[in-house]
Structures are given as C-alpha cells and as structure tokens.
Amino acid sequence: MAIREIRKEGDPILRKECRPVKEMTERISTLIEDMFETMYEAEGVGLAGPQVGILRKIFVIDVGIEEPEPYVFINPEILELEGEQTGQEGCLSVPGYSGEVTRAEHVRVRAFDANMEEFELEADGLFARAIQHENDHLYGTLYIDKVNGELIDLSTLESGEDEEE
Ligand code: NI
C-alpha cells in the first residue's frame, strides 16, 4: 500500500470523465487499497479515482457512521435521488475551503465491490451526500461548481490565532 498524491483543483485530470472498470486486476486492487490509505491519511471521508490521477469509475467512502463499511464503489450508477439537504462540504482536492451545497437527501445506487460483485444500497444524510459528491468526481464535476453563494476560506475562520503574513 502507498499514499498517492492528491490532485488539486486546477489539475485538468479532475475535469475529465472516467472510464468504467472492466475487470478486477492486481493494479486496480492495489489502487483501491492506496485510495483508502490516502483518504485516511488526509482525514477525508471520500476519495475518487481522478483525485489520485486515475480516470476510472471508482470511489471510496468512509463517513464513519454506516455499517458495514468502509465502502468501495466501482462503476456506480445512481438509480434514484429523493428529497433535499443543504450543508457544508469540502474536498481533498480543494484544501482549505468549504461551501454550502444542496443535494438529494436520499440516494439509491448500484455499484460493484472490490470482488466485482454487484450491490445496491440506499443512503441518507451524510452518506448520501458523500456518494453524490464522489460520483460527481467521476464526471469531472467538483462541489465548487455547485456551491450556494461563496466558498468559505477556512483560514479566515481562525482569526483569533491568525499570524501576520
Ligand atoms: Ni471531493
């Protein structure tokens, strides 16, 4: 396993559409392990292929509240979106910022797991938000494209501890 470099906003790879995974290979299997390790090291709750420079339809999620988890989604297909939720979002590819995004409250998704076995699941709340955010990455969309109002520069929120620059 290895930590991979997380691509940052401005890198054109984040704006490309991913290709599906045809079969599980050693290479893809290692990629998935690395994606989990990279996500945990960066303290994120989700990470998609393009964020580590791989244009494949894969993302991993661990929002810490679902069972069983963590999850890997391969070739995901969103089958249903219902309701609405509005909340703060961030992205490991846009460090130091957050923004308010409105998404569906409920999602039904079909995908393949690390054994290329198909599964279907329904999610709500934070888990549903993460699925929609990560799925967007597979189509070159970032949450900053969907933000309500302005992005928040997180460094300005710590004004009490600010040092002069
Ligand atoms: Ni992201």
Describe this protein's structure.
It is built from two helices and eight strands. The longest helix has 16 residues. The radius of gyration is 16 Å and the shape is globular. The model has no long low-confidence stretch (mean pLDDT 93). Bound molecules: nickel (II) ion. Nickel (II) ion binds next to helix 2. Nickel (II) ion (NI) binds next to helix 2.
Provide a compact summary of the structure:
This protein is about 20% helix and about 30% strand.
Topology diagram in text:
Layout: H1 26-41, E1 46-48, E2 58-61, E3 71-82, E4 85-89, E5 97-103, E6 106-112, E7 118-124, H2 125-137, E8 147-153
Antiparallel strand pairs: 1-2, 2-3, 3-6, 4-5, 5-8, 6-7
Bound molecules: nickel (II) ion.
Nickel (II) ion binds next to helix 2.
Features:
2 helices, 3-stranded antiparallel sheet, alpha+beta, single chain, binds nickel (II) ion, about 160 residues, globular, 5-stranded antiparallel sheet
